[in-house]
Design brief:
Chain A: It catalyses: 4 Fe(2+) + O2 + 6 H2O = 4 iron(III) oxide-hydroxide + 12 H(+). Chain A: Its EC number is 1.16.3.2. Chain A: Keywords: Cytoplasm, Iron, Iron storage, Metal-binding, Oxidoreductase. Chain A: It is found in: Cytoplasm. The structure holds two protein chains of two kinds. Chain A is built from seven helices and no strands. In chain A, helix 2 packs antiparallel against helix 3, helix 2 runs antiparallel to helix 4 and helix 4 packs antiparallel against helix 6. The longest helix of chain A is centred in the N-terminal third of the chain and has 30 residues. Chain B is of the alpha+beta class. Chain B has one domain. Chain B is globular, with a radius of gyration of 14 Å. Chain B has two helices and six strands. In chain B, strand 5 and strand 6 form a beta hairpin. Classes of the chains: A mainly alpha, B alpha+beta.
């Protein structure tokens, strides 16, 4: 039997489903960072707002990277629905702590897809995700460094203003 | 035409020369590309069977399925939905695009 299905698609459908889930997660992250940028703007943390606008763009780029991979492999990328975006934060520390939590979730999800792709023998998906694995190391490290800087600076007196100014060091 | 998989009510066939698939849904047979088959899979696997057993979520126990860019419309009852899920799941395994032996979440 001629394998016309394999000729049209080069990854497993299970990988495609997981990557569509990841598209949704990246879109949610992008929207969440946009909400954080909005909070920062409203509360006078203008440098942090710039940082989150940039993060939102980056997450969308990640989403598009996966979307295009699915197109290239003959899969069916699904445009994600994004709901339940939190706009309420108690402080700038809360914003960055939530960011780290979010990044850890994304990392776990990427690792899970890598493991599944390995199980399925889907080498293309596994290799494609190499870049994301290293990107997540960088993302987590950035937020951890910012949280360390916040701990050292402290939030008393002009601390909050100093924190916001320091965030500029992490905007490339 | 080569039969890929036959479930209780439906069957999936492959036409190599046309590079197309045919899905026999009883009332009619529809021709599909792999993209359309992937779209069908997404729609079918997204159907919540739980809702068929909850009068508030699905009062009549039917699903309306629009296929091939709204070219075809099917109304399926609970048993037919279960059977179509089975066909899709095993059909993709038979095509070599899936290694799963149990339902996957979409």
């Amino acid at each position: 039997m001629k394998d016309i299905a394999r000729q049209s698609m080069s990854i497993k459908v299970e990988s495609m489903d997981l990557l569509n889930g990841q598209i949704k997660m990246e879109a949610h992250a992008s929207a969440t960072y946009l909400a954080m940028a909005s909070w920062c703007e409203q509360n006078g943390f203008f440098t942090s707002a710039k940082f989150f606008f940039k993060q939102a763009e980056e997450e969308r780029e990640h989403m598009m990277k996966i979307f295009n991979f699915l197109v290239d492999t003959g899969g069916s990328p699904i445009s994600p629905e994004v709901t339940n975006i939190n706009h309420d934060y108690s402080s700038i520390v809360d914003v960055f702590e939530n960011t780290l939590e979010h990044e850890v979730k994304v990392t776990k999800s990427i690792h899970n897809i890598v493991k599944k792709a390995r199980e399925l023998g889907d080498i293309a998906t596994e290799r494609f995700l190499d870049w994301f694995v290293m990107e997540q190391v960088e993302e987590e490290n950035t937020i951890r460094d910012i949280l360390d800087m916040i701990a050292v600076t402290g939030t008393e007196g002009v601390g909050l203003q100093m924190i916001d100014n320091q965030v500029a060091n992490w905007i490339e | 035409m080569v039969e890929i998989y036959r479930s209780k009510y439906y069957s999936l066939q492959q036409a190599v020369r046309e590079r197309a698939f045919y899905l026999d849904l009883g009332q009619k047979t529809i021709r599909m590309s792999l993209c359309q088959l992937l779209s069908l899979r997404h729609k079918v696997m997204s159907i919540s069977l739980e809702s068929h057993f909850d009068c508030d979520l699905n009062k009549h126990g039917f699903e309306v399925l629009l296929l091939c860019n709204k070219e075809h419309l099917f109304i399926l009852n609970t048993m037919e939905v279960i059977d179509l899920k089975n066909l899709v799941e095993h059909g993709f395994v038979a095509l070599g695009l899936s290694v799963a032996t149990e339902a996957v979440e979409v």
